[in-house]
Amino acid sequence: MRQSEKSASADETSTDQRILDAAMTLFFRYGYSRVVVDDIVRELAISKKTVYNHFGGKSEILTAGIDRFARQFRQRADEIVNDVDLSLRQKLNAYLQHIGGSFSTVNKKFWDDLKRSEPVAYKQANDFRRDMQLQYLTQLVEEGVRVGYIRDDASRQIAIVMFISAVQQLTDTDFLSQFPADISRQIPATTQERIDLVLNILLRGILTEKFYLE
Fold it and tell me: HSE of 22 in the Cβ direction (CA atoms, 13 Å)?
C-alpha cells in the first residue's frame, strides 16, 4: 500500500472513531431515541454527508459502537485474567473494577430506551454482557478451584449464574420497579456499587478458609 493510501485509510479510521465517540456519548447521555444524526453533526462540527460517508445511519453507528465496546472490553479482560503476575484476589478485584468501569458510563435510561426502540441492538448488547461475564468469571472461578480458594462443588456454578442474573436485573428499571420504593431506594445508585455488593454476598458462599488466610 502506498503512503498516500495508508494516510487516507488512517484518516477514515480516525473519522469513524470520532463519530462513534461522539454518538455513543450522546446516546448514553440522552438516550438513543432522543439523539438524531444532526446532533452528532453539531457535536463534531462536520457535515451530515461526512457521517453518511462512513455509516448508513444512526442504527449502523449504534451497532458499530456496541461492537467496538465489546472488542475493548475483551481486550482488557484478557489482559487481566491472563496476567501471571497477579494473584487470584488481584485478578478478581481488577476484573470487577473493569466491569464496573465499563458499564457505569451506560445510563440505565439508555438500556430502557434501547430495549424499546432498537430491540435487536438491545439483545446484541445484553447477550454480550451476559456471555462476557460468563466466560471470564468462569475462568477466574476455575482458577480459584485449582489453587484451593473456591470450593470444588456445584455452588460455584450457581454463584456464577446468580451473579450474572443479579447484575442484569439490577440494571433493568422495569424489574426494579416491581419492588416497593422503600426497598429500591436502598439499592446503590451506581453499577460498580451494585456489582461489589452482589459479589461480596455470593463469594461468602463459595470461598474456602484458605482464601481468607492468605
Answer: 19
